[in-house]
Amino acid sequence: MSSPEPYTVNVPDAHIEKLKRKLEDTDYPDELDTDDQWRYGAPVSDVKRLAEQWRTGFDWRKAEAEINELPNYRKKVNVDGFGDVDMHFVWQKSEVEGAIPLLFCHGWPGSFLEVKKLLPLLKGGDGKPAFQIVAPSLPNFGFSQRISKPGFALEQYAQTCHRLMLDLGYSKYVTQGGDWGFYVTRIMGLLYPDAVLASHINMIRAHPPSFTSQPTLALQHAVTPYSSAEKQGLQRSAWFTTEGQAYRQLQATKPQTLSFAFASSPVALLAWIYEKLRDWTDAYPWTDDEILTWVSIYYFSTAGPNAHIRIYYEAGHNPTEMVPSRERASEWIPRVKLGLAHFPREITVVPRVWGKTLGDVVHESVNEKGGHFAAWERPDVISKDLQDMFGKKGPLYKIVPGKSGY
After folding, report:
1. Cα–Cα distance between 403 and 406 in angstroms, integer?
2. pTM of this prediction?
3. What angle do CA 138, 267, 250 make, to 5 degrees?
4. Which segments of 119-168 are extended strands (E)?
5. What are the residue boundaries of the structural domains of the chain, listed by start?
6. Which residues form the active site (predicted)?
7. Peptide bond before 109: cis, by omega within 30 degrees of 0?
8. From CA 311, how far away is CA 153, in angstroms rounded?
């Protein structure tokens, strides 16, 4: 087993210069004459402005230096059938005795960087619990290794994260995640319930309770009208189903064909991700530097600018006995205590009673503002949820044996 080593992000100058040449040579599409370009996707004017800023104004070296201020590490993690996988991760160790080990798992099109705003909020003190935070770049993302062998699906992602925690000395821990972080941490709880003692999720993928499996919840669902916020949430979910998920169908069926666009054109990658950053957030005031840093992490990824989308295909085409489909993450998972954070501009927003079909829910927050990238948009909410769950007055105080976090 390899030991974790400090890691410094250092993109070669040649890669940066090549990016700038490609940006300069970009041909842009036409668009319809309308004041509402967003109905059709990312507007040409927005993407042109961002691309020109990427080429002439954005300072990757400055963004890289800020990334390198984080406690970055790397180590090899053995994954069954795939050998040693080189993993990059942020690892904020706590000096507080008994700090709670927490795995933070990102999704698409996010990255390890989403944990950045949480790090100072979860150091503990003033009666708040402290956390040992591990935030990996998932394989095929960020600065972790590209997987070239088919079949790296949800069980493998879950095993990678679990074994990383074990390798770092955390035999029992808790998790936080949204997007693919929802699926990965849920499957971790399914496969490793002796280790994953509790999970907090901010993308809640759940279904209405049924009388055959959960009669009490089903009765509650049948007799309790949806609140106005829940009705609006169902409308948001319907929007995503009809107008927002074409990307997922493409990435889950023919990822290689789409990969030609990302490998060839940085502007294609920019437009693809920028659309999601705008559509999936709750009027979050993205700066150009934020957008271009997020996209640059994908473009300069160790795995290349297109490997990230393969998770959609692999997760949907590699059923196993324990994980017959990714829908298993949206079903009841026993033993793992659960915290839920509801946000009105998540890509799917379910009624609260639906969330209770996922497991033993011990904490919920219902928030009036926030979207898909909750740790970035609302780090105050995510940190408070975790503090309320694991603090002295919380339902999971001292859930990790021998870990008080104070």
Report:
1. 8
2. 0.97
3. 55
4. 131-136
5. 70-240+315-390
6. 179 (nucleophile), 312 (proton donor), 372 (proton acceptor)
7. yes
8. 7
Letter for the amino acid at 138?
L
Tens digits of pLDDT across the chain (406 residues): 789 999 999 999 999 999 999 999 999 999 999 999 999 999 999 999 999 999 999 999 999 999 999 999 999 999 999 999 999 999 999 999 989 999 999 999 999 999 999 999 999 999 999 999 999 999 999 999 999 999 999 999 999 999 999 999 999 999 999 999 999 999 999 999 999 999 999 999 999 999 998 999 999 999 999 999 999 999 999 999 999 999 999 999 999 999 999 999 999 999 999 999 999 999 999 999 999 999 999 999 999 999 999 999 999 999 999 999 999 999 999 999 999 999 999 999 999 999 999 999 999 999 999 999 999 999 999 999 999 999 999 999 999 987 666 5
Instruction: Record the tokens describing residue 147, joined without a space.
Output: 């997987």
Q: Write out the DSSP string of 243-279.
A: II-HHHHHHHH-HHHHHHHHHH-HHHHHHHHHHHHHH
Roughly how many angstroms between the first and final C-alpha of the chain, as a whole number?
Answer: 31
As a whole number of angstroms, the distance between CA 75 and CA 144 comes to 9
DSSP state of 358: S
| Fold assignment, 70-240+315-390 | Rossmann fold (3.40.50)
Listed residue (124, 162, 114, 104) closest to 390, CA to CA: 124
**For the sheet containing 5-6, what is the strand order?**
5-6, 72-79, 83-92, 131-136, 100-105, 173-177, 196-201, 337-342, 360-366
The verdict on whether 179 is a catalytic residue reads yes
Residue among 312, 342, 363, 406 flagged as catalytic: 312
User: Which residue of the set 88, 162, 221, 372 is catalytic?
Assistant: 372
Decide if 173 is catalytic: no
Distance separating alpha carbons of residues 179 and 326, to the nearest angstrom: 12
**Side-chain-side CA neighbours of residue 125 (13 Å):** 6
Choice among 179, 282, 385, 388 that is catalytic = 179
